[in-house]
Design brief:
Order of helices and strands: HHHHHHHHHHHH
Number of helices: 12
Structural class: mainly alpha
Radius of gyration: 19 Å
Helix content: over 70%
Strand content: under 5%
Largest sheet: none
C-alpha cells in the first residue's frame, strides 16, 4: 500500500513539474516571439487585408462579414506563433537545450500550444471589438462565441505547432508549408461563402477544416444559424486539438530522435 501511494505521489509531483515547465515555456515564447515582425505580419496584417480584399467585391451583410473576419483573424493569429518559434530556436541552437532540459517533449508541445492559443485569443479580439464598435453587429449568444473562440484558438495553435514539426531551421520554409495548408482550409470553411451557397465539392471538403467549426460557433454567437450543430462544433474542435497535439509530439520526437 505504501508503495502504491508513493507511486501516485511521484506521478502527481511529476505532472505538476511538467505543467510548470509548460507554463515557463509559454511565458518564454510570449516574451520573446509575440511581437516579432513575421508573427505580426502573418498573424494580423495578412488575414485582415486578405479578407477585406475579398469582401470589397461582395455585398455581404454585416452578420456574415463580422463573424468571418473574427474567425479568420483568430485562425491566422493563433497559428502564426507555432510555425516560427521552433525554426527560430533550431536556428539559434536553443531547441536542443530545451529538449535536453527537465521539460518533457509533451511539456514543450503544450507550452508552444498554450502560447499560440493565448496570443491568438487575445490579439484577435482587436478586429472583433473594432467590428462591434463600427458596425451594427451584436453578440446574441455569448456561450457559443466563447466556446468557438477558446477551442478554436487551441485547435489553430495546435495546427501551427504541428506544422513546425519538420526538422528545419529556416522559418521561411515552415511558413511556406504553413500557408500551403492554411489557405486551402480557408476557402472550404464557409468564411467567404456560406456553406449553403458553396458547390457540392466544397460542402464535402468543409468538415476537414477546423476553421469551419470555429466559424460556425462564432456565427451562432452573433445570432446566426449553425451549419453543423453546436455539439458537433465543440466535439470537432476538441478532437482536432488533440489530434494535432498528438501529431506534433510524434513528429517532433521523430525529428529529434529518428524513427523508433
Amino acid at each position: 500500500m505504501a508503495t502504491i501511494e508513493f507511486t501516485h505521489a511521484t506521478r502527481w509531483a511529476e505532472f505538476l513539474r511538467q505543467t510548470h515547465c509548460a507554463w515557463v515555456i509559454a511565458k518564454k515564447n510570449a516574451r520573446i516571439y509575440y511581437m516579432k515582425g513575421p508573427v505580426v505580419t502573418f498573424g494580423i496584417v495578412f488575414p485582415l487585408f486578405f479578407y477585406l480584399s475579398f469582401a470589397a467585391g461582395h455585398n455581404a451583410p454585416v452578420e456574415v462579414m463580422v463573424p468571418g473576419i473574427a474567425a479568420m483573424a483568430l485562425f491566422f493569429t493563433a497559428s502564426a506563433v507555432g510555425p516560427l518559434v521552433t525554426p527560430w530556436e533550431r536556428q539559434a541552437r536553443t531547441f536542443e537545450r530545451l529538449v535536453t532540459s527537465p521539460a518533457s517533449l509533451g511539456a514543450i508541445v503544450f507550452g508552444d500550444v498554450g502560447s499560440g492559443a493565448a496570443f491568438g485569443a487575445l490579439l484577435a479580439l482587436l478586429p472583433l471589438v473594432t467590428a462591434l464598435a463600427l458596425t451594427t453587429a451584436q453578440v446574441g449568444n455569448l456561450v457559443p462565441l466563447l466556446a468557438g473562440w477558446l477551442l478554436g484558438a487551441t485547435a489553430f495553435s495546435s495546427l501551427g505547432v504541428l506544422m513546425a514539426a519538420p526538422a528545419s531551421d529556416t522559418p521561411s520554409q515552415v511558413m511556406m508549408l504553413s500557408n500551403l495548408v492554411r489557405l486551402p482550409l480557408i476557402f472550404v470553411s464557409g468564411v467567404f461563402v456560406p456553406h449553403a451557397q458553396m458547390p457540392q465539392w466544397g460542402q464535402w471538403l468543409s468538415p476537414i477544416s477546423p476553421l469551419s467549426y470555429c466559424a460556425d460557433l462564432i456565427r451562432v454567437g452573433f445570432g446566426g444559424n449553425a451549419y453543423f450543430s453546436v455539439t458537433v462544433d465543440v466535439l470537432a474542435l476538441a478532437g482536432f486539438s488533440i489530434a494535432f497535439m498528438v501529431g506534433a509530439h510524434f513528429f517532433h520526437r521523430r525529428a529529434q530522435y529518428g524513427p523508433t
